[in-house]
Amino acid sequence: MANSKYEYVRLFEQDQTLLPNTWIVVRVDGRGFHKLSNHYEFAKPNDRRALDLMNAAASHVVRSIADVCFAYGVSDEYSFVFERNTQMFERRRDKLVSTVVSTFTAAYVLLWPQHFPSTPPSPPTSVNADAGPAPASHLDASHLPTFDGRAVVYPTTANLRDYLSWRQVDCHINNLYNTTFWTLVLRGGLSQTGAEEHLKGTVSSDKNEMLFSRFGINYNNEPDMYRKGSCVFREYETTAHDDDDKERSNAAAAAPLMSQPARDDNEETRSSDVPEPPLSKTQQEKQRKAKAKAQVVVRHLDIIKDDFWNRRPWILLSGGRPPPNKSVSVIQS
Ligand code: GTP
Ligand code: MG
To answer: Residues annotated as region Disordered (predicted)?
Structure first.
């Protein structure tokens, strides 16, 4: 077919392709959620409904995009890790980011009514700005949840682990601060400015002590979801004690499934500096089926230590690919 004289405009389209054999992380972040959380009267500092909704939307992304091997979320943000050798959209940045952001946003909006049920029973579900002030639990067009997104590539598994650790440390620091701040305001009767002043120059141990001695709150007993954030991934086999995250101080109890120092850069370079050969069509189909069957779970675990990763080697070490026999040996402790 003859090209039209307009066809040349395609030449202006510039695709950015992300480096091969690197970890791609797409992070979505709620736009203006400070305002939005006030508008919909989220509980402070943590609203379980809002966090469950973030987790449900993230689980939908992991289920819908087979090449996403892990996701970590806190507050209004979620990071989605693509398996190292993903060929999705030929690794085009725009396509990857926009697909993750829109899939996440669509699920967030769709699932909103399940997490913020209305009382009394729902008015029409359509989003309608002219319908007058909506009950707080209903989305209204002037305060629709939207998310921005960005992609970052990490060349080594150690870099990726450090990225995820950075997000989890941030979760801990912010949550300890917010928990203390809002306890001082809501239970201690301080103004917000007063609480801010009160917390100036304090370190973690001061905040822990303040919570305990003045309000009888043991920070370590706060829900894991608030303190550690949320991880979403495919679980092929779990053990009863796997997921309750009684952080084992005894390293021997966490006998690694693969004897590898996960954060050894040299090892990393040796084992994965050459991209894995592409899979045959049959292999791809087999993997797709195994992934589709796998259970996508939400867990609130420590991802800074090696234990989590050692127990689930399929997430990072095998590039997100399911273990060949769909299960891994159960760790005995
Ligand atoms: P931009 O991302 O730059 O658009 O700003 P933002 O307003 O979304 O703020 P940011 O992403 O830095 O931080 C997220 C904000 O969302 C927090 O500061 C809170 O105000 C709000 N937020 C997130 N989760 C909760 C929650 O569970 N409860 C409450 N009350 N607020 C929350
Ligand atoms: Mg935000």
So the answer is: 239-295
Does an H or E element contain 82, and which? strand 77-82
**In angstroms, what is the span from residue 104 Cα to ligand 2's centroid?**
14
The reply to whether 327 falls in a domain is: no
Predicted confidence (pLDDT) per residue in 145-158, tens digit: 999 999 999 999 99
Whether residue 91 is annotated as binding a ligand: the answer is: no
- Distance from the Cα of residue 7 to its chain's centroid: 41
CA distance 276 to 284: 13
d(CA 145, CA 36): 7
Q: Is residue 274 part of a domain?
A: no
With beta carbons less than 8 A apart as the criterion, state whether 253 and 312 touch: no
Mean pLDDT of 64-81: 97
Q: pLDDT tens digits, residue range 181-235?
A: 999 999 999 999 999 999 999 999 999 999 999 999 999 999 999 999 999 999 9
Domain that holds residue 86: 15-117+138-158+225-231
Consecutive H or E run containing 28: strand 23-30
Ligand 2: distance of its center to the CA of 32 in Å?
5
Ligand (nearest to CA of 35): 1
109 in a structural domain:
yes
Ligand 1 binding pocket includes 72 (Cβ within 6 Å): no
SS3 call for 263: coil
CATH of residue 108? 3.30.70.3000
Q: Which ligand gives the minimal distance to the CA of 41?
A: 1
46 CB under 6 A from ligand 1? Answer: yes
Side chain identity, residue 19: L
Q: How many domains does the chain have?
A: 1
| pTM: predicted TM-score of the whole model, two decimal places | 0.84
User: What's the angle, vertex CA 173, arms to CA 167 and CA 177, rounded to 5?
Assistant: 140
> Does residue 45 have a cis bond before it (omega within 30 degrees)?
yes
Q: Tell which residue, 264, 265, 246, 254, has the closest CA to residue 312.
A: 254
